[in-house]
Amino acid sequence: MVEARRSVRYLSGADLDRLGLGMGELVDILEEAFRAKAAGEVTMPPKIFFHRGGPRFYSSMVCASPALGYAGCKWQSGDPANPAIGLPYIQGLYILTEDATGRMCAVMDAEWITGKRTAAASGLVIRHLAKAGGRTLGILGCGVQARAHLEAVHAVRPRFDECLCYDIVPERRDRFVAEMTGRFGFGSVRGLSGPEEVARNSDVLVTGGPIEKDRKPVIRPDWIGPGALVVTIDYDSYVTDEAIRAMDLVLTDDFGQIEDARLNEGKFPGVARVDSTLAELVAHGKGARTSDAQRILAFNLGIALEDLATAVALLERARREGVGTMLPIRA
Ligand SMILES: NC(=O)c1ccc[n+]([C@@H]2O[C@H](COP(=O)([O-])OP(=O)(O)OC[C@H]3O[C@@H](n4cnc5c(N)ncnc54)[C@H](O)[C@@H]3O)[C@@H](O)[C@H]2O)c1
Cα separation of 301 and 116, whole Å? Predict the structure, then answer.
């Protein structure tokens, strides 16, 4: 028993794949986690995020939740130049700890967690805020997140069957079109030559270019049609301050996180008001759409609670199914 207590379960990306946690399940898991947050059952200081030259960054994200029974920490790096040398933009490791005892339980590949939970969090926003009857998803940036977002949109809005996409690297856009056409209910996936045409024709627009140190946003207010929902996963890198101000509703996944990014990183200078948070939306309906004409913007910065809830679900499955490698903390 003592040996078991002094070991951690290591879960590689391949191990996590084998566990088969579906995107729809993950959206539900995050919805529960945001309800716990609304009930005050989550401790989550703002993430530490700093650039390491240009758009490259490090971040560290911690969270504890007695409701979930665990605490955890993600350490990651980001570099948009990495895919060109065969490495992912985002790389990281996650450490999971039992809350009651502080015992270290698991170390896992955080690239997997970030890849899935980010799209699942967008899925949660889309479930609650996309107008009824939409069918066209716009994607800016055709990488890891773009692929996961098709799956997430399908999980929450299976009627979506058209995707319009743009990438500054045309070959990446074309590869995305070839790979994703016909997947997750998207019978039509079309690559366009600029972001404007994508934005203007989307019911839901996801911006997933790089998080820039010195942003050069291009999305103007008139690019966003009546009733559209914009979900940014690249902070405010793509949307102009004018567009932000023109929105009927502005939400974020965590108020403290966006305030911290404003104060300490100089980001989000154009955000004059935040109407609600994802936790308030799912728990109390605050910030919900009240008309099909409203234009809504959600800044999904990505928060530690999403990582924690995902990691807990993965660990529980891994324990049930005997997946992973036990590593001694002390030999
Ligand atoms: N908010 C969150 O929770 C969260 C989590 C993970 C990643 N992200 C962010 O999402 C973004 C995408 O991450 P990823 O893992 O998919 O990266 P990725 O490298 O796999 O894909 C990004 C794609 O964007 C393209 N691109 C670069 N500049 C562009 C521009 N101006 N317009 C259109 N396309 C452009 C690149 O060519 C690349 O194909 C990054 O900014 C990353 O930091 C956010």
Answer: 14
Half-sphere exposure of 44 (CA within 13 A, CB side): 30
From the CA of 49, how far away is ligand 1's center (Å)?
16
* Site to substitute for ligand 1 among 117, 166, 168, most atoms within 8 A of C-beta: 168
Domains of the chain, CATH where assigned: 2-113+305-328 (3.30.1780.10), 132-302 (3.40.50.720)
Nearby residues of 309 by Cβ (< 8 Å), 6 or more positions away: 29, 30, 32, 33, 65, 68, 117
The whole-model pTM stands at 0.96
Closest atom of ligand 1 to CA, residue 78:
43
Encode the chain (331 residues) as per-residue pLDDT tens digits: 444 458 999 999 999 999 999 999 999 999 999 999 999 999 999 999 998 888 899 999 999 999 999 999 999 999 999 999 999 999 999 999 999 999 999 999 999 999 999 999 999 999 999 999 999 999 999 999 999 999 999 999 999 999 999 999 999 999 999 999 999 999 999 999 999 999 999 999 999 999 888 899 999 999 999 999 999 999 999 999 999 999 999 999 999 999 999 998 899 999 999 999 999 999 999 999 999 999 999 999 999 999 999 999 999 999 999 999 999 998 6
Q: Which atom of ligand 1 is nearest to the CA of 235?
A: 1
